[in-house]
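Same chain as my last thread, 279 residues:
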Amino acid sequence: MVSEGATLRKLQILELKILLEFKRICERHNLQYFLIGGTLLGAVRHRGFVPWDDDIDVGMMRSEYIKFLNVCKDELSQEYTLQTFETDRTYAHPFAKIRLVGTEYPEPKYKAVSDQRGIWMDIFPFDSTPSNRLLRDIHRFRLMTIIHMCEIKYNYTVEPSTLLRRVLYLGLRWFSRPFSRTWLENRREYLFQKYNRENPGSYIYSTLCCFPSEAFEQFVELEFEGIKFPVPAGYTDCLTCAFGDYMSIPPKNKRIRHTPHAPNFGKYADICSVDEIRD
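reply #2:
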């Protein structure tokens, strides 16, 4: 019987395989991307995956993200599939995923409604926010509201953790009823991109965490699983905004994975090392 640790490591290797395909396309078309979230944290703190992490996160400025989606239609190998709310009408999120065809790793939130369940990596578009703090907080609240309304409209599974959250969820469920999926998606995309023609006070993506714009003025490379990837030059500020004291290892009860479901590796079940996925 394969141990849980060995299964997680195999999952990480296949996610790295997806990242290398993404990297290939971006380098061929001179598209700027960067590690973000738990993947950036892993590069800084572990020089690879956070040991309990089960996904890969990258970011792109909105203009680069749009270019990537366009070239990806022709460039992406048949081993993979691109998933966006435009290509998959069961998918509500405002960011893209690349999935490995022939595998399964369903996420609980939309396991019951989505046909695409392959092992994935996330690609987040970054957008500008107002420089004024009050306007920025209002902007974040509006985005949070419409993101949740989209998920409700797509029948994603949501389990509010407190009574107040349950009341808010029921309120949003009622409030979203008159609106179509298309209207909500168009409104969400408009709000995300509303301030992109202004000088950014900060950048935001779908987690609604804001990062100082100065952190993205330049990019450097850090090692992740023995391979160099670009990161924001101000990555310390990004990690502090996202995680606080990011160099401290959290207790075991805080080491959360995205999904408790066991992955199905399909034809990739025998891959066990990074060397097997590198050219």
